[in-house]
Amino acid sequence: MHISYKPLWHTLIEQNMRKEDLRLAAGLTINMIANMGKEGKHISMDTLARICETLDCGIMDVIELVSDEPSTTRNDNGKTERKNHREQH
């Protein structure tokens, strides 16, 4: 599993904020913002807490856990298909 910051980007859109606005308001570095844009890069829990406090939101509005292993599903023909979890969203 890995951490995805996709919920954060949606939360920023909902709050009409840019990444730069968040960076300045939460006291983040440019590198922190860049790392959140990369798959598998992590930031500290303290940083996540600052983001949640700044946006007045919960942790699930900032991150989600995404499986690295593909899941299997059955198609209409009864055949098993492998699907990557990321493709399901």
Q: Main sheet?
A: 2 strands, antiparallel
Task: Calculate Rg over CA atoms.
Answer: 16 Å
Q: Helicity, in percent?
A: 25-40%
Low-pLDDT parts are: 84-89
Strand content: 15-25%
CATH architecture of the domain at 2-63: Orthogonal Bundle
Question: Can you tell me about this structure?
Answer:
39% of the residues lie in helices and 16% in strands. With 89 residues, it is an alpha+beta fold. The protein has a domain at 2-63: lambda repressor-like DNA-binding domains (434 Repressor (Amino-terminal Domain), Orthogonal Bundle), CATH 1.10.260.40. The strands form two sheets. A two-stranded antiparallel ribbon has the order 1-2. A two-stranded antiparallel ribbon has the order 3-4. Strand 3 (71-74) and strand 4 (80-83) form a beta hairpin.
Topology:
Layout: E1 2-4, H1 6-14, H2 19-26, H3 30-36, H4 45-55, E2 64-66, E3 71-74, E4 80-83
Antiparallel strand pairs: 1-2, 3-4
How do you describe this structure in short?
The protein has about 90 residues and is α+β, with helices and mostly antiparallel strands.
Characteristic terms for this protein:
89 residues; 434 Repressor (Amino-terminal Domain); two-stranded antiparallel ribbon
